[in-house]
Amino acid sequence: MAHIDPTQEERDRALLQRFGYKQELQRTLGFLSNFAVAFSYISVSTGTFALFSLGILAGGPAFFWTWPIVAIGQFLVALNFAELASHFPIAGSIYQWSKRLSGYNLGWFTGWIYFFAGILTITSVAFTIPIPLQAIFPGLPATIMGLKAPVFIAVLAIIIGTVINVAGVRLLSIINNIGVAAEIVGMIGFALVLLFFFHQQGIGFLFSGPSPKDPVLQTPANPWTPGFDTSYAGAFLAALFMSLFVIYGFDTAGTLGEETKNPQKNAPRGILWSLGLSSIAGFLFLGGTILAIKDLPKIEAIAGGANPNVPPTGALPTIIQDALGQFWGDIYLWVVFLAVCVCMFAIQSATIRLMFSMGRDGRLPFGKAWGIVHPSLHTPLWASIAVAVLSLLPFLYSDAIAVLVTGATGLIYLSYFMNNIASLLARLRNWPHEKAPFSLGRWGLPINILALLYGGLMIINFLWFGGLRSNTNPALSGAFPALASVPLLGNIPIFEFSLLVLFVVGAIYWFGFKRRAVIAEDENPAQVLAD
């Protein structure tokens, strides 16, 4: 009898079965669609429009150099993730990777932290959607149906994104591909136009700090990062936050592994290409917009909230409209609006897959309900609804975008750090034992160590960053005013507050109710180095 080679679809299905799962999600994504979702998650336009005001106010034009610093550091992380995605192309990305490399405890806490980081990121990006709209339509009402206009728009966007994700990955990929094309043309094309035809400053402008008239530099103590007095170093570390918020989410290419054809090759490529192209786009875009600034004190005044007619987040739209004129400026802002919407849809998709993956394993409250795939839609329906509801809850905590962004980004970097610890521990036990299509070879260990050093330094920066302490814990003062007067609790920033709540609640749930049952049910309690 002649030997018949299995098709790629059969090989993909067999690979998933090897990890203990049957194919339920639709495997329809090729490399370009896989890359597109990860690129949309990163979304240079989303992060820059959300936090450009922080960067320019804290660091001045020289905050441009935070971009290559973060891009290089994250590329080290991405290389490590690409190898993991090649070995474990399973929905849930770093949760699955940590679980299979380090066992129960670290794996579960990595997924737990990363899940709520995704929830906060959805909220943060949804709250970015109104920024270009407010610039295009300055006459938008302050409130809509009893909610602040930005909150109403954000809530509506989350609902629409949920419907798109429930409808299926094919629709999501079509919308993502359109959004990616628009963002690439917008970020790179318009950036080159700004650089060559509308620049107002020379290259030396990129090495200058905030305007001497900037009130930030005239305060008796550095308001950004405690311990640096009035030095520029503290302000530059604070300005890092814009770049830190933008450049993550590339692991989404791995979390869509169960829906990607030939994922052991295409998922690693999606991770690296999404990060690489985003880094180039951001470098050009930030350079183009900063050099297009006509009046730095004016932009700083907007960023600092001194202009009552323009919200602080309007600093970047103002630069673009001043440079390109109202008509072309608005055209570009519509491109940004589309890119931000697609970014939020992609983040919802990744967070839904993570909840589905943890739910399928029975690792979350309410059992395996979150791991159920709708038989006709082929999407995790209940996980999609739960992610939507949870991503609306942070609005009870705060409607200040910088506060939400700080919490989301800090939790993301912590979960990345925890996953890199898991992979380092595995490498010290001679993992990987088998060859995968993408391999770091002997470079795996040093790259892993460098990624940990970079991630650790960024987490330290999150912990001592003081720029948001003066207006933090708005959740307690707004939704829970009785708790705002509790010593320490009323002043704790959102990152530390989130860590405290998640680790306390997580430890009670995991060690008190779940861990013993999971070990009893598992056929392979070691659960380490499953490849």
From TrEMBL:
Q: Keywords in alphabetical order, please.
A: Membrane, Transmembrane, Transmembrane helix, Transport
Enumerate the subcellular locations listed in this protein's record, separating them with semicolons: Membrane
Q: Name the coiled-coil region(s).
A: none
Q: How does it sit in the membrane?
A: Multi-pass membrane protein
InterPro entries assigned to the protein according to its UniProt record, in alphabetical order: AA/rel_permease1
Q: Does the keyword Transmembrane apply?
A: yes
Q: List all membrane-crossing ranges.
A: 31-58, 64-85, 106-131, 151-172, 184-207, 232-250, 271-293, 331-356, 377-397, 403-426, 447-468, 488-511
Say if the entry is tagged with keyword Membrane: yes
Taken from the UniProt entry, a GO cellular component term is: membrane
- Chief location bin: membrane
Q: Which Pfam families match?
A: AA_permease_2
Q: Which GO terms describe its molecular function?
A: transmembrane transporter activity
From the Swiss-Prot or TrEMBL record, give the protein name. Amino acid permease
